Amino acid sequence: MTKKGQQAGSLSRRSLLGGAAAIGTTAALKSAGALEANPANLPPNVSEWTPYLGAGVDANPYGVPSEFESHVVRRSVEWLTASTESSVNFTPLQDLEGFVTPNGLCFERHHGGVPEVNPVDYRLMINGLVDRELIFTLDDLKRFPQTNRFHFLECAANGGMEWRGAQLNGCQYTFGMVHNVQYTGVKLSDICREVGIKPEASWVMAEGGDSAGMNRSIPIEKILDDCMIAYAMNGEALRPEQGYPARLVVPGWEGNMWVKWIRRLEFGDMPYMAREETSKYTDLMEDGKARMFTWVMDAKSVVTSPCPEKALMSKGTQLLRGLAWSGRGKIDRVDVSLDGGKNWQTAELHGPVMDKCLTRFTLPFEWNGEELLVQSRAMDETGYVQPTIGELQKVRGLNSIYHNNAIATWQVHADGSVDNVRLG
Ligand code: MTE
Ligand code: CO
């Protein structure tokens, strides 16, 4: 077993977590005062906030979280990104409950920054092998029949830093390139009916309106199956970071294909071999050849508490929390091990358990200060079982970056602090 950071040479825990380094250790939480209650506020006293009128209704025209939740933010890793415009940040999974990601906490991945798209000037153009080449306004899109679906979006690079060993000491950094919201929009099959697809059309090139002009090829079967153009997330307009005013939704498939600020769909009869599917988002194998078009995100899970940011604060009964998802369908079962994979217990799944959607699981356990090696293993409705990193590397070798869905291990120490470690 190697500890985090050992294979990463100069990477120290401090430099990786920056200001957030304190979060996650018992001692740090105590020194930050997070655990020190003011006796004057506790029963049977009247708390200091009770005798006075509170803030009025207009204090926050657009509501914001309590100031005591200010540590719950997206975070980025300096050395992972060349510039903030071609960058990524991470969802704070360890601080979330349920299965919905709040809009302001959805991780962001941009290749050319966030464009400021005026919805009045927004257009979606459809061209190529169709009967009628059409250009839709946002209002046109909103006049189509509506569909509402919860889906996870996971970047293919999620966990990509962990292929060769435990590197980033945090749930947020190792698993946080995933979010899960309810999308409202139009099924692409409805748009296809409107434009009329020629029989020889077999691929669609989706193109973004950002400065990266990011584009991807998608087979027509997937487009007609469950893809949609979304204009809302969690009940409100898409956030600019997530592609305002419209993005492509490609359920269960790698996040890169979910083209944001979508401006064009071209129907063709072969893949377009875009940069993002040839140079990037391919899996380099041991023999030097690269796998292409590895679109589906296989079943995966993570324990969100305890984890490096969520130390165990007391002995006795604990509630382990986690999230599981599969790009092939519904989560069927999640097992949890506290001893590095020797013994497994089945966790409780909290419904609704939906297709290609994050599923919350919990498991109560007793802790008396012993060391734990916490793991979770997801199974989906197709029978697929989340692999160990050893099993994955046997097939994929050591050159991969993308599509790491291996079981992770959190080591809980006697003082309750937690580290990301590699078993095997
Ligand atoms: N679409 C455009 N137009 N430009 C981009 O840079 N990034 C892609 C995809 N769609 C990107 C894009 C990548 S790599 C991912 S993982 C997802 O958007 C991230 O979506 P999010 O920012 O909503 O998390
Ligand atoms: Co991505």
What does this structure look like?
There is one protein chain. By secondary structure, the chain is of the alpha+beta class. It has a domain at 300-423: Immunoglobulin-like (Sandwich), CATH 2.60.40.650. Helices cover 11% and strands 28% of the residues. The protein contains eight helices and 24 strands. The protein has helices at residues 13-17, 26-31, 138-142, 171-175, 188-195, 220-226, 275-278, 389-396, and strands spanning 2-3, 87-88, 109-110, 124-128, 134-136, 147-154, 178-187, 203-208, 215-219, 228-233, 236-237, 247-249, 262-268, 283-284, 290-291, 300-305, 316-325, 331-337, 345-346, 348-350, 359-367, 372-380, 409-412, 418-422. It starts with a strand and ends with a strand. The site of ligand MTE has 21 residues, from strand 3. Cobalt (II) ion (CO) binds next to loops.
Tell me roughly what share of residues is in helical segments.
10-25%
Widest sheet, order of strands: 1-24-23-22-18-19
Distance between the termini: 6 Å
What share of the residues does DSSP label as strand, in percent?
Answer: 25-35%
Counted by DSSP, the helix tally is 8
Low-confidence stretches: 1-33
Question: Keywords for this structure?
Answer:
five-stranded mixed β-sheet; disordered N terminus; six-stranded antiparallel β-sheet; alpha+beta; Immunoglobulin-like; binds ligand MTE; 8 helices; binds cobalt (II) ion; globular; 424 residues
In short:
The chain has 424 residues and is an alpha+beta fold.
Describe the SSE topology.
Blueprint: E1 2-3, H1 13-17, H2 26-31, E2 87-88, E3 109-110, E4 124-128, E5 134-136, H3 138-142, E6 147-154, H4 171-175, E7 178-187, H5 188-195, E8 203-208, E9 215-219, H6 220-226, E10 228-233, E11 236-237, E12 247-249, E13 262-268, H7 275-278, E14 283-284, E15 290-291, E16 300-305, E17 316-325, E18 331-337, E19 345-346, E20 348-350, E21 359-367, E22 372-380, H8 389-396, E23 409-412, E24 418-422
Parallel strand pairs: 4-13
Antiparallel strand pairs: 1-24, 2-3, 4-5, 6-7, 7-10, 8-9, 8-13, 10-11, 10-12, 14-15, 16-17, 17-21, 18-19, 18-22, 20-21, 22-23, 23-24
